[in-house]
Every structure is written in structure tokens, then in C-alpha cells.
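REQUEST FORM: STRUCTURE PREDICTION
Request ID: SP-0412
Submitted by: Lab K.M.
Chain count: 1
Length (residues): 116
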Amino acid sequence: MLSLLSRVPQIITNFRNQSTGQLAFFTFLLSFLGVVARLGTVLLETDDFLYQLQFILSVILNGIIVLQFILYWNNKASSSVNDVKGGNTNYSKSTKSKASEATGAKSPSKKREKIE
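STATUS: Completed
RESULT:
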């Protein structure tokens, strides 16, 4: 049941980023195929609907992630986890120099300008 709950945030993150980032396709493919096989045995062996439902949902959620891999295969990650949480990890040269000015640190480029 925990694996079901872990898939929903991953699906949402992949959708927002339009990328699967650095997730391992093979891992999710094996997980999907394993759950499909397990669902087959559960459907044949038991009539308990709630027991079957967890495997049905697991096949659906794992299938969505595998589908996202196919859809977003060539997409680069548009943002990182910190960007989604509101942090900024894309530092430009101007941001670095502003940060160093705020801390009082001198940048190497300024030293070179003075030497030349």
C-alpha cells in the first residue's frame, strides 16, 4: 500500500516537470511487469475485491509512470526539486557575484581586473 502512496507524488512531479528527471526506466519497467504478473495471480486465486483493488491500482499507477517515460523520453528536466519547493538552484554569474558582494568575498574576475 505504501508503494501506491509513493507513486502519486512522483506522477505529479513528472507531470509538472514534463520530464522523468533521473529516474531509472528499467526499475519502473520491472516494477510494472512484476505488478502485472502479481495481479494475474491475485485475480485467479482470490475473490476478495479489496485485495484485488490494491494490485489494480498499483498496475495503473506504475503504468502511468512507464507511460510518462515514453512521453517525456527526450525531455530534459525543466526544474529541480528545489525549484518546485521554491528554491533557486540556477545560479548565474550575476547571482554569484551578488552573493559574494553580500558576504564581502571578492570574485576572482575582479582580482584579474585589478592586476591587468
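NOTES: Residues 1-78 form one domain.
Reviewed by: T.R.
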